[in-house]
Amino acid sequence: MKRLKCTITYDGSDFAGFQVQPDHRTVQGVLEKALLQMHKGQSIRIQASGRTDTGVHAVGQVIHFDSPLEIPDRNWKQALNTLLPDDVRIQKVEKQTEEFHARYSVKEKEYHYFVYNEEDPDVFRRGYVYHEPRKLDFERMQEACQYLEGTHDFTSFSSAKSSVKGTKIRTLYHVSCHQTGSNIEFVFRGSGFLYNMVRIMMSVLLDVGKGKRNPEDIIDLLASKNRQQIGKTIAPQGLYLWRVSYEENGNEN
Predict the structure, then answer these.
(1) How far apart are the two ends of the chain, measured CA to CA in Å?
(2) Are 95 and 4 in contact (CB under 8 A)?
(3) Contact status, residue 28 vs residue 48, Cβ threshold 8 Å
(4) Is 73 known to be catalytic?
């Protein structure tokens, strides 16, 4: 059996999230269907770096699976892309040792969230950016980003539906926002993320931008460890799993 690591990209608009669900179209479902065809009816289960929710996109999601087939890496990519729908693409395939695991070997993850800050929405990008019609104070949001960096208990920024057992302490190495005209891009890079964590952080950052909160309020929100202190979880369409990084070992090539 060969262990294969695949870097994939997908448009989450028409998926009910990543994880397989009965009677719903999911990213895992279409990937495993393609693998089933390649393996002549033999079921192949994939493992992902993490799940994405309905409407969330990925630029650099990573999966792995084990296969008995002897196929060159380049041919794997071509064969799978031939069988996959247009909203999922395999970018890269690499052979790995059995020690590699798409989820448990993760060193760092990076998410980006895109906001379109204009009075009227852009109808052509409505599935790919979050529309905020009220004027945002960019400098205040930049300041607020700094309070999220570091090692904290992110209980306040985790969904009440989270199934995570144990600690909710995570380390964010980098949080920032960048503005180009009406477009604002937020970047979150860390050791790991809780369920809905980025979307809840975005809700707070936009409240800061709208003047509803002060940047330093984040200190108290983290200390409270209370999800009820924060408003709704922001919409998914502006969120992208951008990159997943691993230690440079386990690659057979």
Answers:
(1) 16
(2) yes
(3) yes
(4) no
pLDDT band with cut points at 50, 70 and 90 for residue 147: very high
Mean pLDDT of the chain: 94
What pLDDT score does 161 carry?
73
DSSP 23: T
CA dihedral for 151, 156, 157, 162, sign (positive or negative): positive
pLDDT of residue 164: 66
- Three-class SS of residue 19? coil
Name beta bridge partners: 96: 3, 251
| Cα–Cα distances in angstroms (integers) from residue 104 to residues 49, 50, 101, 168, 216, in the given order | 8, 10, 5, 16, 34
CA atoms within 13 A on the CB side of 6: 30
**Domains (ranges, CATH) in the chain?**
2-104 (3.30.70.580), 107-242 (3.30.70.660)
Among candidate residues 11, 14, 53, 86, the one labeled active-site is 53
What is the pTM (predicted TM-score) of this model?
A: 0.94
